[in-house]
């Protein structure tokens, strides 16, 4: 964690910086004429595949686009259903809807905001095509149970690892334990190129389908033949050049993430009404953000804002979104606590320790007021 705090008020929810090396790389790509998807993107994809120990990585414009490409490459479309957890960013569900399929939501575990794998079997119908676990904030869903059941029932598994870059479980890297694994390179992620995403796979046919999908179904722009459905979901070499530099920073970034998580873990342990929502670091999970639970969450956020500290509430459970057509709200018991009490505290790989110390001091002052 950086010690010197720049003059900034309020304290932001997230703080990360790109350095001179990223700027030099982007400038070099521009001056060399590497603008759209090209050789630099191909190199970046190879480096990503090597990092995660899989044969193929396919880059695209965002984590949302990565999810859509994966769903389409899996052959999912109208009449199909995909099972996913009720706690995730809505992009997970929208990727399924965009492909023309239906979302089937299930509850989370009581103590972790990830899919309860024991609920999958009863949610399967003749229309079910895939299971889509989400590894929120680096927390791994139960991949051994999920992949075993999927194999037994003839289903595909697509991992949403947008918040789990370089996070691990006993089976290895999250996002690399299934048919397809989707990642984000957005600004609040471990590795960022501003915007962007990618999909990992071990299966060549899925890789080939995604390469077509991201380029309007055309194998070669110079010998156009409309071979399949597709869209313009191509990445670009300017962003890829930044990504290549970011990959070299992973050890330092991971160290910074574990440091700010430990800082808050120690500080929040002293409070009565604000508790850390833990990540299992012993199992290899890497916290992306610092998440806490507070019974009077909205009041706490209001008080923090008055003190110049930016905190974000958790997003709502998906079953409250009418366009997802999941009317049986009573089945989602476990996830309600996370939606009602969860908040993100200021953090980030370049967040000055002074800012976090000030946040903890203010939280300690406010603890009794939110009790």
Q: Which structural class fits the helix and strand makeup?
A: alpha/beta
- Main-sheet strand order equals 1-9-8-5-4-2-3
The shape, in one word, is globular
Largest pleated sheet:
7 strands, mixed
Q: In sequence order, what are the helices and strands, one letter per element?
A: HHEHEHEHEHEEEEEHHHEEHEHEH
CA radius of gyration: 21 Å
Task: Enumerate the spans where pLDDT stays under 50 for 5 or more consecutive residues.
Answer: 2-7
Helix content: 25-40%
- Count of β-strands: 13
In terms of DSSP E residues, the strand content is 5-15%
C-alpha end-to-end distance: 31 Å
Count of alpha/pi helices: 12
- Give the overall pLDDT as a whole number: 95
How would you characterize this protein structure?
The protein has 371 residues and is of the alpha/beta class. Helix 4 links the parallel strand 2 and strand 3. The radius of gyration is 21 Å and the shape is globular. The N terminus is likely disordered.
């Amino acid at each position: 964690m950086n010690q010197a705090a720049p003059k900034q008020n309020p304290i932001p929810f997230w703080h990360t910086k790109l350095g001179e090396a990223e700027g030099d790389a982007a400038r070099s790509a521009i001056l060399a004429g590497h603008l759209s998807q090209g050789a630099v993107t191909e190199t970046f994809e190879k480096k990503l595949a090597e990092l995660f120990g899989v044969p193929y990585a396919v880059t695209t414009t965002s984590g949302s686009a990565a999810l859509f490409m994966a769903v389409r490459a899996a052959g999912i479309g109208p009449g199909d259903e995909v099972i996913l957890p009720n706690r995730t960013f809505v992009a997970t569900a929208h990727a399924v809807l965009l492909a023309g399929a239906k979302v089937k939501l299930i509850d989370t575990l009581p103590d972790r905001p990830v899919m309860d794998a024991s609920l999958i079997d009863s949610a399967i119908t003749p229309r079910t095509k895939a299971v889509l676990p989400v590894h929120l904030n680096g927390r791994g869903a139960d991949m051994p149970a999920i992949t075993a059941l999927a194999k037994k029932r003839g289903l595909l598994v697509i991992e949403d690892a947008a918040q789990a870059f370089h996070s691990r479980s006993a089976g290895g890297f999250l996002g690399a334990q299934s048919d397809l694994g989707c990642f984000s390179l957005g600004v609040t992620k471990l590795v960022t190129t501003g915007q962007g995403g990618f999909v990992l796979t071990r299966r060549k046919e899925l890789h080939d389908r995604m390469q077509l999908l991201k380029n309007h179904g055309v194998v070669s722009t110079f010998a156009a033949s409309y071979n399949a459905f597709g869209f313009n979901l191509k990445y670009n070499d300017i962003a890829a050049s930044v990504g290549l530099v970011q990959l070299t920073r992973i050890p330092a970034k991971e160290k910074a993430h574990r440091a700010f998580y430990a800082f808050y873990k120690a500080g929040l342990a002293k409070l009565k009404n604000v508790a850390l929502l833990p990540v299992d670091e012993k199992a290899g999970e890497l916290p992306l953000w610092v998440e806490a639970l507070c019974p009077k969450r909205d009041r706490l956020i209001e008080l923090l804002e008055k003190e110049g500290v930016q905190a974000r509430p958790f997003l709502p459970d998906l079953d409250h979104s009418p366009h997802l057509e999941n009317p049986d709200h009573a089945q989602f018991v476990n996830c309600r606590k996370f939606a009602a009490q969860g908040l993100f505290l200021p953090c980030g790989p370049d967040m000055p320790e002074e800012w976090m110390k000030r946040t903890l001091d203010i939280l300690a002052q406010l603890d009794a007021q939110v009790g």
